[in-house]
Design a protein that fits this description.
This protein has 153 residues and is of the alpha+beta class. Helices cover 40% and strands 17% of the residues. The structure holds uridine-5'-diphosphate (UDP) and magnesium ion.
């Protein structure tokens, strides 16, 4: 099964939305394979957001992402990368559709609640960036048969 990397951003911690965001992933039937709190250094943010370092808003993005610790999660499920991106919604919370996490909880292009990997390749690189192998867990929730048909697992 596929895994994707999610970061609950400082805005989510500050606004006490951590539980509601995690609840959405669990209710969908996605599996938490890893979860921890950490502070993101500027060096790590420069690596993670390498595609944005030359953009004028980059210093503001670094400030925003390091104002509190974040919660990083490895989330597993069939087609998890695509499913979680769809649940996340468009980058700008004002453009994100209602029903998506950003669409329901954000009014901002920067303070947009979560990061989610945008491809399988990014998911693999980002999972390695934030988790050591022994911080990731392989287990089968007992409700698996109610969440997937046997030929979907
Ligand atoms: N961002 C921003 N202003 C912009 C574009 C992006 O502040 O004009 C921030 C925003 O927090 C976004 C992050 O930079 O989530 C990464 O941007 P990306 O284009 O990768 O969007 P995402 O993959 O998060 O939807
Ligand atoms: Mg991105």
């Amino acid at each position: 099964m596929e895994s994707t990397l999610v970061i609950l951003k400082p805005s989510t911690i500050q606004r006490a939305l951590v539980g509601q965001v995690i609840d959405r992933f669990q209710k969908k039937g996605l599996i938490i394979a890893g979860i921890k709190m950490m502070r993101l250094s500027e060096a790590l943010l420069r690596e993670h957001y390498a595609h944005l370092v030359d953009r004028p808003f980059f210093p503001l993005l670094v400030e925003s992402m390091s104002i509190t610790p974040v919660i990083v999660m490895s989330i597993k499920g069939r087609d998890a990368v695509e499913v979680v991106r769809a649940m996340t919604g468009a980058t700008n919370g004002r453009k994100a559709l209602p029903g998506t996490i950003r669409g329901d909880f954000s009014m901002s292009g920067q303070e947009n609640i979560i990061h989610a990997s945008d491809s399988l390749e990014s998911a693999e690189i980002e999972t390695r960036r934030f988790f050591k192998p022994d911080e990731l867990f392989d287990y089968t929730p007992s409700l698996m048969r109610s969440m997937y048909a046997p030929d979907e697992i």
